[in-house]
Amino acid sequence: MTKVVIDPITRIEGHLRITCVVENGKVTDAWNTATMFRGFEIFMKGRDPKGIWQFAQRICGVCPTPHAFNSVRAVENAMGMKTVPDSVRLIRNMMEATQLGYDHILWFYHLNGFDYVNVPNTLNAKPGTPGLKAVQDQVKAVVDSGQLGPFANMYWDHPGYKLPADLDLEITAHYLQALEIQQRACDASAVLGGRYPMINNYVPGGVTQMPSIEDIEFYISQMGVVKDFIDTVMVPDLLAIAPYYLDLASYGQGVGNFLSWGVLDEKSQDPYDRLFPRGGIFDGKLALEKVDLSEARKYTKTSWYDDGVGGGKHPLEVGQEPINFTKMPPIEGDALPAGKYDWTQAVRYGKENRAMEVGPLAQVLIAYLAGRPEAKKLVNDTLAAVGHAGDPTVLLSNLGRVAARVIKAKINSDNAIRWANELLANIGSGETKIYEELDFSKDGTGESGWDAPRGALAHYAKIKDSKIDTYAAVPPSNWNLSPRDDNGKRGPVEEALVGTPVLDPEKPLEILRTVHTFDP
Amino acid sequence: MEHEEMSLFPGLSRRDFLKSCGALAGLIGVSGPMAVPRVAQALEQMAKRPAIVWSCFQECLGCSVNLLQSRKPAPANLILQQISLNYHEAIMAPAGSQAKKSFHETVDSKDFYYVVEGGIATGIPDACTIGGMTSMEMCKDAYQKAKATIAIGTCACYGGIQAAAPNPSGSKGVTDFLKEDAGISNPTVINSPRCPGNADDTVAILLYAIVKGKLPELDSLGRPKFLFGQLVHDNCERRGHFDAGEFVEKFGDEGSDNGWCLYKVGCKGPVAYAPCPKTRWNANNGWPVSAGGPCIGCSEPDFWDKQSPFYEKAPGIKLPGDITPTQIGVGLGALTAVGIGAHFVGQAATGRLFKGAPVEGMEDKGSEEGGK
Questions:
Q1: Which CATH number applies to B11-227?
Q2: Of B264, B266, B269, B245, residue with least CA distance to B323
Q3: Which ipTM was obtained for this model?
Q4: Residues 237..256 of B with a Cβ closer than 8 Å to A: which?
Q5: N or C: which end of chain B has fewer CB within 10 A?
Q6: How far does the CA of residue A109 sit from the closest CA of chain B (Å)?
Q7: Mutual angle of helices A86-105 and A64-78, in 10-degree steps
């Protein structure tokens, strides 16, 4: 038995440790440990519900916009506002589309890319264009300077890197290009929301102002650039890389349960009618089920919170106070995590206490099963391209998670401009209401489920005496990076790690790959 | 292929490099006809790219995400040509023990600049650990060996959101942590607050320190005066509406449509010192007030407690209710609140920061085109 600890897991948001047991070249057991605690639910208590969304979007600086959305929706829901004016729907969709546009590009190239693309190997390429030559010269200058910066100390000699040098160079060039393209999506967000990250145009009851025609035109031009990039660079890159890494289909299967609250409202504002519709998939059976926000249940026996309240609680009822914490388990030595080992609480779904995988794979599979034409076509094309035509079960793997993010990025960018054009049409027809004043004098409890780029996100708010009485957020990494529940059942990432091959425990590249496919 | 014909690599051309040097020169107050060559030369003549260690502690990564929005220079240029980003957990390739190796190699060389994003967990030290080291251990070690330390974003400066009452993890900004928990009596930390920390501030301060070889002049809260010397209110494009008594009363009303002053729906511009209305955000594409939302005062210590509720009027500010047209013409004197004294009067009238004008405490003060 070999204990492998990776701490810090880099190229993620937040702080994460992974502990694995490796036997005979494979992971046989795994634990994830979030190594940071901030206490949002505690300091959100007693605040003004009108401004609570400003706190909520700081939960994640990589994906603040869906946190902002869920927070204003949960408060609106608590105050009895069932739907929002149509132009508010469209502005919030447009904001979300910028978030998704930048985020999936960032994940594919900047967070996930180095697990597959070997930067020093670009020096062996024979560049076919002046642009690629310029990139190679840049990399060479960095290498020759002896200052490798962020590229230093990676396992570049690992035989798991399979791309030919020319492809390594091309993707590295796209890594740099993508740094520019993600800015276009963020600029589109800033022109409507004031800045990115941490937007400023949401408010419970609507949005702060109607964007000008000029701003909407700017949005369309920026998101057009993002769409072109995804169509002409990112999708081809996925298809170019995939043949070298088909072994990704053979590990990282996970729990086989998938959950999405849905994201991007159509005119009905029905969550089952969203561009990415709400739904669940249970026990690896590719059939679509309805899901309920109140079925999220939390457990604290293995996390550093008070478990005196008992397991299986609604997010608003679970213990939110940290226990009298002493010390993290040591990295060195043979000791494995036991008892409490995580700052993340375990969240499970329904009375069966299923651990649920969330994220683009869940979103794309659910859209596929719901018969959405775009998702069906792109999934079928992808399956054909990787030699598994007609067999979507092959996507229940690391390969599926990588491919699903690219598919989702494409569907999102294909629709972003549609929302903008619908808003222009609303302005043309005088449908310009953007705000309804809420009555905060009554008490109420509200909820909202609307997926972040990395997966299912829900907020729950109890408002009493015009103040936040209790608040709870259940972000995607709460699902994916759940520790064991009170019954000892592993969380989704822990489960996906089991079976991951490890060629060299000193250079656990394959473990990084499995973890990164969840975009933690 | 079509995509290779696009303007792909903003960081890689000489023209763009010089352009970014020009922007930087303006931002850090190097003025005059030789400003661009001076900055470019200073950067190019360095034998080594300056090494950066960037720690993320109790944070949301928003400051780093805004760093990726930098245009002066673009991030590809910054990372490949201008700095050596040896340690940044969200960007670096290596993980685990290999990442820790990058940290220790650079920190122990003592030849690096240290950037901190996020608060330091002092109440529960293990509320923030990286590679088995607490944020307290890492921050103290790196601070003591760094050539200069910059706190980016309000969390690293003053504790930020997780320090909001009741501060469950005992989170502190770098300066307070060093003073109160690390036994360092008089720490020197450049604070660049706002939530998120702003990319262009970050780069400007870094380059100021590198090109000028010294620290910028700081205010009593550790913020560079060249960035944080003026109230948001004084440079706001909606200031005229405040002076004219034209206010948004609720979102979506006539005032909202016409871009009137947001003071009555909670704007904290009159009590927040930040360059937002001048430098704006995301390559000049907006700032919080341009989105029709009130400033939340995110550049100020403890703003989560002291500036909230965010959608209620800031207390103690007298409105220009019955002032005469003459007084409006003067444009000043309407504010009589505590904390908004005569400080801004001289600056507000000129509104000339970043335009080659003299900036208090800068070595280039008054040279060449200064003072015009």
A1: 3.40.50.700
A2: B245
A3: 0.97
A4: 250-252, 256
A5: C
A6: 11
A7: 150
Q: Assess B132–A contact: CB distance below 8 Å, yes or no.
A: yes
For B65, name the nearest residue in chain A, comparing CA atoms only.
A62
Q: How far is A409 from A402, CA to CA, in rounded Å?
A: 11
Taking the Cβ of residue B46 and every Cβ of chain A, the question of whether any pair is shorter than 8 Å is answered with no
Task: Tell me, yes or no, if A9 comes closer than 8 A to chain B by beta carbon.
Answer: yes
| Mean pLDDT value of segment A489-516 | 98
DSSP run (H or E) holding B192: strand B190-192
Digit-coded pLDDT (tens) for B75-89: 998 888 889 999 999
Beta bridge partners of A452: A455
Report pLDDT for B31. 60
Cβ contact A149–B84 (<8 Å): yes
From-to residues of CATH 4.10.480.10 in chain B: 231-345
Cα B255–chain centre separation? 30
**Residue with structure tokens 């070997």?**
A118
Tens digit of each residue's pLDDT (9 = 90 or more) over B270-301 = 999 999 999 999 999 999 999 999 999 999 99
Boundaries of CATH 3.40.50.700 in chain B? 11-227
Mean pLDDT of A73-89: 98
Strands B113-117 and B148-152: parallel
First to last CA, chain B: 50
User: Cα–Cα distance between B296 and A143 in angstroms, integer?
Assistant: 44
Question: Cα–Cα distance between B44 and B49 in angstroms, integer?
Answer: 9
Mean pLDDT score of chain A: 96
Of A7, A3, A1, A9, which is closest to residue A30 (Cα–Cα)?
A3
Q: How many CB atoms lie within 10 A of CB B225?
A: 16
- Residue in A133, A409, A231 with CA at minimum distance from that of residue B9: A133
The bridge status of strand A206-207 relative to strand A202-203 is antiparallel
pLDDT value of residue B28: 60
Quote the minimal CA–CA distance from B298 to chain A in Å.
Answer: 11
CATH-assigned architecture of domain A2-40+50-123+169-327+336-428+456-517:
Orthogonal Bundle (1.10)
HSE-up of residue A134 (Cα within 13 Å, Cβ side): 19
Q: How far is CA B162 from CA A40, A48, A479, B78, B304, in A?
A: 7, 17, 22, 30, 9
Q: Pick A10's closest partner by Cβ from B92, B266, B281.
A: B92
Residue-by-residue DSSP string for A279-290: EEE-TT----B-
Sheet strands side by side (includes B84-88): B84-88, B51-56, B113-117, B148-152, B190-192
What CATH code would you report for B231-345? 4.10.480.10
Query: Which of A39, A150, A197 lies at the smallest CB-CB distance from B65?
Result: A197
The answer on pLDDT for B362 being more than 90 is no
The amino acid present at A92, given as its one-letter code, is: R
Residue A426 in tokens: 């609303």
Q: Which of A119, A147, A194 is closest, CB to CB, to B286?
A: A194
Is pLDDT above 90 for A331?
yes
pLDDT of B41 strictly over 80: no
Token duo for residue A520? 């933690």
